[in-house]
Write a structure and sequence with these properties.
Two copies of one chain form a homodimer. By secondary structure, chain A is an alpha+beta fold. Helix content of chain A is about 40%, strand content about 20%. Bound molecules: manganese (II) ion (2 copies) and zinc ion (2 copies). The structure holds a DNA duplex. Chains A, B: Keywords: Cytoplasm, DNA-binding, Iron, Metal-binding, Repressor, Transcription, Transcription regulation, Zinc.
Amino acid sequence: MNERMKSIEEMTQALRDAGIRVTRQRAALLSVLAEAGDHPDAPELHRRAEAAVPGISLSTVYRTLSTLESQGVIQRHQFEGASARFESAETDHHDHMIDVDTGEVIEFASDRIERLQAEIAAELGYEIVHHRMELYVRKTSDS
Amino acid sequence: MNERMKSIEEMTQALRDAGIRVTRQRAALLSVLAEAGDHPDAPELHRRAEAAVPGISLSTVYRTLSTLESQGVIQRHQFEGASARFESAETDHHDHMIDVDTGEVIEFASDRIERLQAEIAAELGYEIVHHRMELYVRKTSDS
DNA sequence: AACTCACTTGCAAGTCATTTGCAACAAGAC
DNA sequence: GTCTTGTTGCAAATGACTTGCAAGTGAGTT
Ligand SMILES: [Mn+2]
Ligand SMILES: [Mn+2]
Ligand SMILES: [Zn+2]
Ligand SMILES: [Zn+2]
């Protein structure tokens, strides 16, 4: 969270400017996602959003998540063998470690790795559009 | 391809030793995968295997791919927005770049990144079981 | 070579996460 | 408040893969 974080008002205005209506359903999901400290999937976001908008449908959740993703407001992660998980894009870039025993998702960031990735791509004549790095890990048995 | 590459005979014997029968279908897929220089998906492997075993079914291809993967003979990759792709495990570890314009898959390896990943995991008390690193790239517009 | 039988296969049907067609609904510009 | 057009809920469709089952076949055994 280095750059100034957009307020909900700024985000909704940005959406409106893009011709996207800020419906109750979308506002609810925006707020749920802004408050989430984890990486929930669509059914879980649906559950959380129902508190603010009873009757919101799962398809609307899916549709809204796609919309918000294409607006760059949220990020979608497809970890191995799991359904898609989401998080607000209002954070600095980071990658993830998944504890293969517990399923816990741990965030981390490494400027050195990011730099090396860019270097490698450049050497081959490419520039990185985006990337994905996931470490599937297990607690060290410090025996 | 640093360590000595297993011959088809050695691989099939290893499978038999694991109680896995080397059927015509499985032999065909093993050979198709050994000869593939790319990262084909199941329907493509099915197509290629049909040359050796006419009538082989797509479900058998899927079942065999799962079996071979669990035997560590092949690797499964799930790139963004695509169905699973496979490659023989008879290569040294490497990661992939995907050209977002053409879909081309480019292999690369970086000891430095691999080392950094292990370091980061270790710092947090974890050891890496396996990982996934994909760079989605675009040819540099050298203008 | 014949025998045996647990492992495999082809086919049809099933899963499951996610998407989509459509008529009723509701943002938000005027 | 009215109007226009994007949105929603619901049910049905998708697409990639998985699975039940009866017939078929590796490969150890005699
Ligand atoms: Mn995260
Ligand atoms: Mn590869
Ligand atoms: Zn990163
Ligand atoms: Zn790697």
